[in-house]
Amino acid sequence: MLDLSGNKFVGKIPEFSKSNSTQSPQPEAFEFLNLANNFLTGSIPSWIHSLEFLTILRLDDNNLTGTIKVFHSKSLPDLSLSSNNLNGEIPNSIFKQEELQSLDLSYNNLDGVVELSKFSLLKNLDQLILSFNNFMIVRSNKVFNHNPFPQLEYLSLAPCNIRALSDILKNMKSLDRLYVSHNKIQGRIPKWLCDYRTSSLSNLNISHNFLTHVERVPCKNLQSLDLRSNMIQEHLPIVPPSLVVLFISNNNLFGEIPSTYCNLNLHMNNFSREIPQDMFKNLTGLRSLHFSGNHLEGSLPRSLRNSQSLEVLDVGNNMIYDTFPHYLEELPMLQVLVLKSNKFHGSIEEPKVKNSFQKLQIMDLSNNEFIGLLPTKYFESFTTMMDGHATRNLTHIGENYYQDSVNSVVKDLSLNKLVGEIPSKMMDLTQLLLLNLSHNKLVGPISRGNQFNTFHEDSYSGNVELCGPPLSKSCNNGMQQDGDHGEKYTDHIIFDWKIVMIGYGCGLIIGISVGYMVLYSERFDYWLYKKVQGCRGVYGVCGAVRSVATVCRFIDAHPYKDDKDKDYVVKQIFV
Questions:
Q1: Smallest Cα–Cα separation from 305: which of 356, 343, 269?
Q2: Of 285, 279, 282, 330, whose CA–CA distance to 300 is shortest?
Q3: Residues 562 and 514 in one domain
Q4: Residue 95 counted as domain residue
Q5: Pick from 304, 289, 358: which is nearest to 329 by CA?
Q6: Which of 32, 67, 100 is the last residue of a domain?
Q7: Cα separations in angstroms, 9 against 35, 37, 81, 288
Q8: Residue (of 92, 164, 103, 106) closest to 135 by Cα position
Q9: Mean pLDDT of 122-135
Q10: Is residue 258 part of a domain?
């Protein structure tokens, strides 16, 4: 047994000579070899292919190249070569591994034409992951009257240039997770896929295809269904009561929203009319709700106050006509509130309860018709924005099928009709990363100190009676002050909380990743599944973690020297 996984080894895997050579003898007795999660390069050496007693081989998450050679072992239950740069075709020796239970060849450059039926020779196979290669999965002409995969529970074929779901899937009675996103599947979901009597399917991802009709999904055990980015043009499909999460954004759905739904991502569709007022009457376990980018009217349902587990509420970019939803202040878990670009109106006034919005970290009320003074009392209640209370680790927000990461605080009150001065109490919000008060009717001097020293002109533009740095207007004579920033920052940052900034200033005191995201990545989803052994999510699990690393690398490559530089870097991240 040799396990060197999860280190930082670089270079090629050593090549060994046969035992009659003067060089180091070739290993022959290895049964377990794990070199995964390193930085190894070069091809897979021949001595690994020739290990006769090998039972577990894991070389995933390296930078290996070349082709997969013939394996001499006939009893290899676990083979993982994913996330490398291997090319060529799948060797026939793999189809002769009678004991093979788990095969992961995903995220390589393998090519050729592959008949799914060839894997039916592997009777013990329970996990087959072929996603993100260059080969084409084709139907077999062979007719199966029995279950060709009696043990298969997890099948991932995204994308594999599939044009239709193969009939070979009909008899897979043990199949629990099927991922066939990013293919060319057209028309409808076949009825046999979810045979109500026999289907054990709990997770189905058929997103990013060309489906046009999904009237009913009769999978009796289905818990997660991802239909995002298809061409569905009808009412919401009828789903089984077992369903926990439905992703169906970026289609052309219309009509009313039934009160039987929960945990929905309905972003960017054509829903109209009102959200049913009793929709959330009994949904006490609801964690995330995304209704942005539709044509919803009327008022927010007061029954939302029953959703005591709600963490994310996004109804932005609709036509909702309502006053500020004070009843949401009592929700103990709410962290993200997005009401932007609607017809909310009236004054925000003062909190109705003590310790309102206890965990709120993102509030976007921009582009509405709010009037009156800035809500000073609310600022006093936002304890998560005070020093020492901000979340400093990655936080799961919403359903655990994805991760919304919030480590600092954002407030956007732009494009309203708010009046009066900026309350001095806002100075206490030391974890406030971004503030946008632009295009209101605010007056008087701008507060300075703490986080307010990091905000630039963009945050206050469009308030003609505001004065003081960073604006050019002086509070005494209206002229530009000495030492003021010579260059104006006039580019207005438009916040879209669907794709909000992840990470900022790696290594700074805040150590942040702000915003909430729904970043969908099958590759990261499966990586996480392997790490935690049992995370059974659809695409999008914890996508924010990957993005934090990406932004950190960007900032490392663009170090800033002063506030002007920092502003540039932040804007580049937003872009």
A1: 356
A2: 279
A3: yes
A4: yes
A5: 358
A6: 100
A7: 9, 9, 17, 41
A8: 106
A9: 92
A10: no
